[in-house]
Amino acid sequence: MGCGTWAWGNRLLWGYSPEMDEQLQAVFNHCVSAGVTLFDTGDSYGTGRLNGRSEALLGQFASAYEGANRDRLCLATKLAAYPWRLTRGAMHQACAASAQRLGRPVDLAQLHWSTANYAPWQEGALLDGLADLVEQGQVKGIGLSNFGPQRLQKIYPRFRDRGIPVTTLQVQYSLLSTYPVTELGIRDVCDELGIRLIAYSPLALGILTGKYEIGGKLPSGLRGFVFRQLLPGVQPILDTLNAIAIFREKTMAQIALNWCLCKGFIPIPGAKTLVQAQQNTGALGWRLDAGEVLELDNAVRRSDKQMVQNIFQTR
Fold first, then answer.
1. What keywords tag this UniProt record (predicted)?
2. Cα–Cα distance between 15 and 8 in angstroms, integer?
3. DSSP secondary structure of the chain
């Protein structure tokens, strides 16, 4: 398991304020001490003037931490495919800026999204620049995000021919977002190419925690709008999660995260509080049995709704 840091600095969707920083440091400390050493951020994280805040906080917390597993930290960042990043040199500069905010070299650099859906001509230089980062010793490894199997197979030779492995691929994956596997077949291609799959938004923005219900208080803004659309159609999933959680004496979130682990993904749930971080790490050290996984899979098939897919996700 890893820890996602999208919320660190994001006011619009997650209500971040600097007063949260002490609690976020506690989140970081707990995760690392519990063996969760992969932290995922992005150079586009942080709204408005707080852009880059997630990377800066992550670097600050890593520098201050002195406990167990410190030498196993892996700080991964996603470099945005902004329209003005047109050359391989732009990726070099982006990675250097991220390293400066982190206060240390980037361990895993990832292209945040594919431009294939709107500007396929832009992508080649960005991918070449990503590969350069390994050859230049700026990063230990590289990864991709929001690439589907067809696009992945098309661009993979660029890295293979340079002898540079693609370490990871991130896709939106959860009980409410099975599209990358069931519709695209991404897992088979990644298994063939030796790429580890990372599941972002594995708790579907919080719906799978069981905290929200029809007629109850929902988050404000965009999350509340999404929840109102989804909740009526996903009750079979929530009911099954709850039943297994009661039987297992776990939380619904822990069942949802463990399901991702059973599917061979590395989930990267976010956490804004120590309690949330403790809940997330409570999904480790045990496994759902085959029957429970099947029950959840069947509940997915009975549900009428799935999360809206990332607009940058390619086929």
1. Oxidoreductase
2. 9
3. -EEE-TTTT-HHHH---GGGHHHHHHHHHHHHHTT--EEEEETT-S-GGGTTHHHHHHHHHHHH--STTGGG-EEEEEE---TT--SHHHHHHHHHHHHHHHTS--SEEEE----TTT-HHHHHHHHHHHHHHHHTTS-SEEEEES--HHHHHHHHHHHHTTT--EEEEEEE-BTTB-HHHHTT-HHHHHHHHT-EEEEESTTGGGGGGT---TTS---SHHHHHHHHHHGGG-HHHHHHHHHHHHHHT--HHHHHHHHHHHTT-EE--B-SSHHHHHHHHTTSS----HHHHHHHHHHHHH-S--PPPPTT---
CA dihedral 275, 272, 222, 169 (to 10 degrees): -100
Rounded to an integer, what distance in angstroms lies between the CA atom of residue 38 and that of residue 292?
27
Q: Cβ–Cβ contacts within 10 Å for residue 71, how many?
A: 6
- Give yes or no: 45 in active site: yes
- pLDDT attached to residue 48: 83
Grouped pLDDT means (10 residues each) for the chain, 315 residues: 94 86 97 98 90 95 95 97 96 98 98 95 97 97 97 96 97 95 94 97 93 78 80 92 97 98 97 96 97 97 86 90
With respect to residue 136, please indicate whether it lies within any of the assigned structural domains: yes
Range of the domain at 162: 2-205+264-272
What angle, 0 to 180 degrees and rounded to 10, lies between the N-to-C axes of helices 149-160 and 186-193? 10
Q: What is the pLDDT of residue 16?
A: 87
**Is residue 165 assigned to a domain?**
yes
pLDDT of residue 196: 98
**CATH code of the domain covering residue 140:** 3.20.20.100
234, part of any domain: no
Residue 213 located in a structural domain: no
Q: Which of 16, 45, 179, 200 is catalytic?
A: 45
